[in-house]
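Hi F.,

I've been meaning to write this up properly since the lab meeting, where we talked about keeping a consistent format for the predictions we share between groups. The idea is simple: the sequence comes first, exactly as it goes in, then the structure tokens exactly as they come out, then a line or two of notes. No screenshots and no reformatting. I'm using this chain as the first example so we have something concrete to point to.
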Amino acid sequence: MNTSAIQNINIGVDTGKSQLDIYIRPLDIFFSVSNDDKGIKQAIKTINQYAPQRVVIEATGRLEMPFILACADANIPYVIANPIHVKRFAGAIGQRAKTDKLDAKLIAHYAEAIQPALTKLKPDSMRLMADLVIRRNQLLSMQTMEKNRLQIMPQKLVMTIKPILTAFKKQIEKIEKKIVDLIENCPEYQAKNVILQSMPGIGKIAAASIISNLPELGYITNKQAAALVGVVSAHFAPHSF
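Output, unedited:
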């Protein structure tokens, strides 16, 4: 293999709940690790040996975030790819079969052929957004449980629930404000924020709710925004809109 080929290393990572499947192109190296701290450390150590131009991983709904943060900490260039783009690439090259190795190999091929721009989200912003979203969801779940109890508990116990609901409401509002502030001060999120708030009926909190569900994507199209508005509205309307 010539030197230029060796220098042009692109790595594809297929993410699963319990496993990461990794393909190194053009060296035809495939390996799997567990999707936990131990496995990710092993993967980072191996990947570092090849000094890749980019490591591409699909956005899958946060399963990929620990690996991405590890890449950022190790200064490994990474790309969080839109799964739709990877799927279209697979169609363009005629790949239909799906196995763990083929999926990772496809992503690596996509990385080499398309050379997508590197993702530049700052690790601290990513961590903070993820933590805020997780805590918001926890509070919303507890709030819903208390509201359900309010419907079935005797009237004399209502006053034991209402103060708790008030506390939940205040904490959720504080977290939502932090999410909004983070989005408005992060260039990677601002473009999505502008697109979303240009849509009728979408304000800061609604836009923040949508973005916080997909903070790893560095872009969003009008069509994707419209779809997300419908999904997030269904889940967050009772509280946020």
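Notes:
The first strand starts at residue 10 and ends at 15.
The CA atoms of residues 77 and 240 lie 36 Å apart.

If this format works for you, I'll send the rest the same way.

G.
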